[in-house]
Structure formats: C-alpha cells, structure tokens
Amino acid sequence: MQRKYLAFILVLLLCPLPALAQQGTAEVGGKVVDAQGAVLPGVIIVFTNEDTGVVRETMSTGDGSYFASQMIPGRYRISAKLEGFKSLDRRGVSLTVGQTTTLDLPLEVGALAETLTVTGEAALIDLSSAEIGGHISAAELTELPAASRSYMAFVGSIPGAHFVPSEGFLNDTMLANGQPAAANSVSMDGATNIDDLRGSNVGGQARVANEALQEVQVITNQFDAEYGRASGAVINAVTKSGTNSFTGAAFGFFTGKKIIARDFFTRVNNLPEPSTGKDEWGGTFGGPILRNKLFFFATLERAVLARNMTGTYPTRPELNFSAVADESAWNTMWRLDHQLNRSNTWAFRWLREYAPQFDRPQVGNNSLNALSDETDLDQALVGTVTTVVSNTMVNTVRFGATLEDTVHANRGIRAQDASNARCAICPEPMLLGQSLLPPRLEYQSVNVNSSVMDFSINDAYSIEDTFSWFIPDKMGRHDAKFGAKYTYVWISNPDNGNSNGTYVFGHDLAFNAANPRTYPERLRIRVPGTREYEMVGRTYELYAQDKWQIKPNFTLSLGIRYDLEVTPIDEIDNPLFSDRSKYPVDRNNVAPRLGFVWNPDGQSKSVIRGGYGLFYDRTLLGTIDDILFATKYSRSFIADFPQNNPDPNPGRGLFPTEPVLNTSTIGALTPAVRAIVNATYPPGTTRRNTGQVDWDDPERTQPYFHQISVGYEREILRGVSMSADYIRMKGKDMFLNPNLNIGSRVDTSRTGRLIFLDPFAVLNSSLAPGETPYVGTVRLRTTKYGYSNYDALNLSVEKRYANNWSLRGAYALGYSRGVVRNQADTPEFQVGADLRLRQREGGHGALGEHR
Fold first, then answer.
1. CA–CA distance, 419 with 424 (Å, rounded to integer)
2. What is the 3-state secondary structure (H, E, C) of 731-757?
3. Is the pLDDT of residue 548 over 90?
4. Would you say 131 and 597 are in contact if contact means Cβ atoms under 8 Å apart?
5. Predicted TM-score of the model (pTM)
6. Which residues pair with 36 in a beta bridge?
7. Is 220 exposed, middle or buried (0-12, 13-18, 19+ CB in 10 A)?
8. What is the pLDDT of residues 232-252, one digit of tens each?
9. What is d(CA 462, CA 401) in angstroms, rounded to the nearest whole number?
10. Residue-wise burial string across 149-177, b where 16 or more C-beta atoms lie within 10 A, e elsewhere
C-alpha cells in the first residue's frame, strides 16, 4: 500500500498539476476598464519588481480580468498597454505574502505612446479571503525594539496570537486559538521549518536573523485548504533577496553587566553578582550578479549570551549559587535568485545555525552541577523553480529540507571535569554516561548532578509541485489551485541518560554514611544498556481549492484537503495487535473548507467574512516514539530498586533493607552496587521491562478540529482599518494517554507497597503462563478520550505605513476548556479505570483562561 501511495504522489509531482500556491508568495488581480467602466480584453500587463527588475507578463481575458499568482512578495510597477489607449504606469504597488491584492486598472483613450502615471495604493482589505491574521513587515522587524531579536516577539500585535518567550536559548514561539505552541505550522520561503519530534514548541527548526526577513504572515484561523497539519497558527516567513543595487547593513546590540540589575535572590542571599551580558552583532549584504537577472543576498549574525542563573535552597544553603549560562550561536544565510527568461525563474536559500550551549539551566530545582550542555546544528534549505505556463497558468516545483544534528555537533565539545560529563573530541558520546556521570541525587527541594545524556538527529525532506490556474469567465472568475506534497522524515534519538542512576531521597538532609536517616529511599537507573532507535515517517498531502468570485462583491472559497501520515511501528509485545506489522494509519482525513467574503458597499472599503472548515493536526513523532523502545521486553529502560515502593527504613531512622541503597557513598556507584544491577539486568541483553511500558492503540487517529468563524472588517479612514471576528473551535480525537496499570497502596503511608489492579482488564490477558505481571505504568498512546473547545472574539485596528508611521493594535478575549493541553497529556485525576475527565476539564483550572 505504501508503494502505491508513493507511486501516486510521484505521478502527481511529475505531471503539470496544480499545487501549493500562496505559501511564501503573493497574488494580484482585478479588471482593466475604460473611462466608462467597460471591460477591455487583450491588454498587455507587465509586472516589474522595482528592486530587482524581474518581470512577469500577462494579458487581460475576454471579460477584462487579469490575475497573476505565485508572485514574489515586494514592491511592483504595473504597466498596461492596448492600442488606442494611453499606456498606464502604476508605481509602488506592494504585494504581501499570502494575500491577494485587488487592483483595477483604468485606461484612457489616447495614443499608445502617451503614458498615464498613477500613484496610490491598492485596496487595504483582502476581498478574496476569509483568513484571519496579519502581517509583520521588514521595517517592524528591524526598527522596533525586541529583547529577544526574534520575529516571534512581534506576533502579539496579531489578533488571537500570544508571544511566548523562550525558557532556553533562542527558542521563542507563540500560542494561538488556545492551542499549545507545538500545534503551529512554521514555514520559510514556502518550505516547512519545523521540528518533527516536538512541533513548533521552540519556534522554527532553524532560527533566522530579523535582518534576513522581508516579512512574516501569521494566520490564526480559517486558513485555506493549501495549509494543513496545524490546529494553532500558520506562520509564513519570507527572506529577502538581492536587488539591482549593492546594499548592506551592519548592526550591533551590546548589553553589559553594569546596566543589568542584581536579581532579588542574589541580593537577599548575599551571593556574588554574576557577570551577565548579551552581545549580538552581524550584517547583511546583497546585490546583482547580472542586472535584472541574477541576484545574491547573505546575512551573518553572532549572538553571545551570559545569562543569569540563581538557585537558592533554604534547607540546603550550601547548594545556593549564582552563575551564568555560556550560550552562543553563529547564524548564516545565503540566497540566490535567477530569472532565466520571462517565463522561468529559480531560487535557492540555505539557512544554518551552529549553537553551542554550556551550563544550560534546566526546569526545576536543580543545583549548579545539575546543569547540562547542548550543541545544536540546525539547517533549513529550499529550492524553487517557477514556470509561467500560459497567460492563466503558473507552476512551481519546490524542494525543502530541515536538518537537526546534536550528535556530530557535540563531538568537539570542550573538556572539563567529569562531574559535568564533558569530553574532549569524544567519538562515541553515548558511552560517556557510565564512565563520567555521577549519580543524580533527587532531594525533596533540590536536585544535585545531571542525568542527561541524549542526542538527536532529525532530517526531513519534502517535494511539492505548485500550479495555479485562473479561469476568468465560467459563471464568474475562478482562482483554482490543486496541490500535492510528499515529506520523508528520519529521526535518531539515542539516550544513555541516567546510566549511573538517580538516588531518590525522602528528605533534604546531606548524606552521612553514619546516619541512616540521610540515606536514599530508591535507586532509579537505566538498564540493560543505551536506548537506541530510528524512526521513519512519511506524509502525503493533497488539496484542491477554488476561490470563486460569483459577483464582483462576493467570493466563495471552496476547498478540500487530504492528509495521510504513515509512521511504521513494530507493535511487538503489544497484546492489542494480533499482527505486529499492522500499525495504525488514519486514512480518513478528508477535510472540507468553505468560506465567503462579501463586500457590501462595492467600494472595497468593507467585508463581511466567515467560514467553516475541518482541520487535521499533525501527530508529533515525539508523542509516539516511546512505543518503539518502551516495550514489554526491552534493551533499555529505567528500573527501580526497590521495584514496588520506596524503602521505608530511612524514614524510620533505620538503614535501608534494599542492598543497592545500603552504600557508603552516593558520589558514585560502588562496584558492589554495579554488580547487583548487572546481575539483575545483564548489560547488552533484552529483559522484561520493569519500568514504564508504552502501548500503541490500534484505533489511534489524527487529532482534528471543527473551525467556525464570522467577522467584519472596514476601512474607517484612509489607510486605517478595524476588524472584529468571532471564532469557535471544537477539537476531537486528541491525545490523552491513560495508565492501564493503576497501583493502589496497601496503606496510607507514603512508602506503602503498591498493588496493581489491572483496571482495564487487558494486562493479565497479555501475559504468558507463569510470566511476571506488569509492575509499573503501562501508558496507552490513544486519541479516544481527548477533546477541547475554544471560543474567542478578536478585535484589531491597523494603519498602513504612510507618512513615516504605522499602527497595529489587537485585543483577544478567549475562553479555552477541555481535557487536553498537548499531545503528551495524561489524566492526572485518574482513579482505576475512571479517567475522571470532568475533574480535569476546566477553563479556569487545568487549561486556564487565555486573554
């Protein structure tokens, strides 16, 4: 079946079929009329990019209409010529990414040699789309202040969008529609720029300098059928290209220790003030290689951040610290654009960021030596070939790739003491855990030492064909699009974390071998060896769409989309599958879209818009990857000593009865402790998983949403518009992952022994005669139980840039409720087989109110 689907997609890609059109491009259309308003067919219309000289030519059709699709966003000069009429020359027409500009061209009777020059702007309001969102211009990105210097910092001015600053380094993102950050779709120059494991919870896969961007489109609701696999927002970023002039810029932002205030906890606890600071500098340069034909553009950005970190622990003041994280990045981008002739252009862009990060702060109460290191190498590439097939048809083929590598990037990390598990030129980083990492110590209020030792490679390749077809006079005008896209994803995520174990304490007392109350209650440790796996995913996307202008003031948007995700999983040892090769594939993801735009005044000054659509979310591979290795019998899992409950003796003032806890030191695993662990779980073997087991659900599907919206937008003053939109979203088949093996304590004590009840009555039936029952969590990765609802009123006002100023303001009143926050959610209030969803549901509780 997979071969059949692949063959079908390849046939589509090799044929001149329509496909994705607006991602990273713009459209312009209208009518050519004479002074009396009569339509003029056969008018030659030439679009010239005022910065590059690149041209596109078309001709008005029998009803006087014209349409140009898949245009590179930018500022254009539009000329129109017809024998017997003066030539029209329209200057300074701005075409915006993802938007259709409506522009009628009036011609006056006269000699062709005469030219009528017209200035003025196109209609402020998009008269062809029910999409809700906004745009961020290059001027905003480079001239307005943003502490993070990320284009995500500007999305807060888009109605319904909420900026989420990074907890880590250079990972800003956003929220929309009450959905998690991972639910967004991020693209750059039309190609996907997203992490397949984690989605967009850290923004795009590869970061881009603000100075490299021409503009950013954010669509928060009712996106057309060409967009899919997202329940949050669609974010389209477009990078700059070179022009006919050599241009460049240099920038520098420097923040030193002297202008950074000493933080509260450092001051109160009399800790030394850390040498914090932030330096960002770089530049851009672009220009012509061949005037009007071939252009280049390149950027360089250097970021160095010494970020303040303070930890204070009242029960263990000797662990208080004040330090800085050592984080930096080299970000580069280059781009080529070439117009071969008036019918054919190609472009290529390569974005790369190398970011070593040492002493990265972790979420939670971690001491200074519990920090971690990470070095990322992220890349995003895209190449396009665009062909003007005819007066009404345009085709684009696009290849995209995103590459993440934290394995090879870490092979040259700097050397330091073993407590931070760093090595000099380490050829096999995954072997470090047992030899260098000391055990992690988890006290009640503070964690000492780090257990992190994992790496990731995430490579994704996509190819899509793009064709747009303008049909001028078939019961109205049609902007028709049809699309196909194929994506291949390969992921490797080895993990040797916790290989030297984690000692868990029921107190905050410093360890003293002579005092039994200071001993740990449990040892958690990775056995029998390193977790290694590879995951392959394939997605197939098809859509058809028609923006049908039934009347000059009424447009109906009709679309249908189909998404297919194929992620092979060996369902070994899963009793819910009679055939281990029959992993779930949701083949029913047909998503209709219907929208309307009505211009009641006929003057392009106001619109009433609305629509309904079915929108399928993507399945994050990080949601289901545990199924590959957290199996009933496994080569890598986290085991507990003792298995069933914490050792109660330390809390009673007695030495532990568990042998691995009765140790003279907790600074390293003693040979005696290692011998016990290895005897129980011999290294390199496959053993019964006594840690968490993950089961796939045969009925697992893709999450989806019903979206309904209705709104009004009006140009209240010249260049100033206001809008109001009501949005309703209803999410179904969302991930909520219950525990099939709930344990109950034999008494009310914290360390009481657990008895597993098998509430779902599926565990014992999966056991062979005499086989040991499951003794830990058995998590079902399922979409049977999850749902969410969202209602919002979005208000906005915008003044287009003119006379050296612009304005944008937004207000969103939203209410989100349901039982799901993200795809990794578990029902925390579960009791036995009762998931207690009513206790979990809430707009002011679990999910919160979003305003």
1. 14
2. EEEECCCCECCCEEECCCCCCCCEEEC
3. yes
4. no
5. 0.89
6. none
7. buried
8. 889 999 999 999 999 999 999
9. 6
10. bbbbbbbebbbbbbbbeeebbbbbbbbbb
